[in-house]
Amino acid sequence: MLLELRGVSKSFGGLRVLDGVDLSVEAGAVHALIGPNGSGKTTLLNCVSGILAADGGQIRLRDLRIDGLRPHRRTALGLGRTFQNIRLFAGMSVLDNVLVGRHCRTRAGLVRAWTRVPFRSLAEERESRERARALLVLVGLSARAHDSAEGLPLADQRRLEIARALAGEPALLLLDEPAAGMTATEKRGVNRLIRDIVATGCTVVLVEHDIGLVMDVSSRVTVLNFGQKIADGTPADVQRDPLVIEAYLGQEA
Fold first, then answer.
1. Which of 39, 49, 47 is nearest to 6 (CA)?
2. Separation of alpha carbons 94 and 159, rounded Å
3. Statement: residue 112 has pLDDT above 60
4. What is the DSSP pairing of strand 228-233 with strand 220-225?
């Protein structure tokens, strides 16, 4: 397994948001996490990426325990993520946003990427720019490389955030509602993009409320409700599960 969670728990005050969650993600999969609002999906991503410290349980990436590591160490080990609320560097260009995501794979580091001070190695700089431009091609933003990130439409901002996450060369990419606020046509583009990402060898954990997108693109689905895992299986199995229908799929999206 690429990612394994065992008994992961998290509470805020007296509210138990995650209650002993187990999760196994196979390499090469698109593994979706679904459930009602407040079921613990984003909290789980935050615990995996290190933004939040789990109160209990273990998190392993490539069989290495990472739950005690800082977020930047998890990134260096092959973990990338996007956010439900977009977190781009608005005053920077599209290309520079992606270059910032390369910092964990260069000797130049984050400060030089952020301040745009020339890299120590011209070869390293060329390689980073070539990689960044290739990622902009992948997400469909190559023509806007020198535009300001803050001027992009919402769908393009989400694509840019994905490109920046991929710049760190993750083995595992956590996508938190990548299709939120998009039109039906834009969501179809996200579907294709996720498939293209997996085709490069990157595994995806997807949190998404669009059930049609989830069921079409995912190879496995885990369902959370009140911080507990209530189902785990193929999309077809999950859609037929009575507990899932009662807790989530039977409600209006």
1. 47
2. 10
3. no
4. antiparallel
Can you give the pTM of this predicted structure?
0.91
Amino acid sitting at position 12: F
Query: Has residue 251 got a pLDDT over 60?
Result: no
DSSP 177-199: STTTT--HHHHHHHHHHHHHHHH
Task: Check: CB of residue 213 under 8 Å from CB of residue 220.
Answer: no
Cα–Cα distance measured from residue 57 to residue 21, given in angstroms and rounded to the nearest whole number: 8
Per the structure block, which two tokens stand in for 134? 């290739």
Identity at 19, one-letter amino acid code: D
Instruction: Retrieve residue 199's tokens.
Output: 């085709």
**Residue whose token pair is 């993520």:** 81
Other Cβ atoms within 10 Å of 130 Cβ, number: 10
Is the distance from CB of 2 to CB of 26 less than 8 angstroms? yes
What tokens appear for 233 in the block?
A: 């299986």
Give the span between the Cα atoms of 147 and 144, in whole angstroms. 5
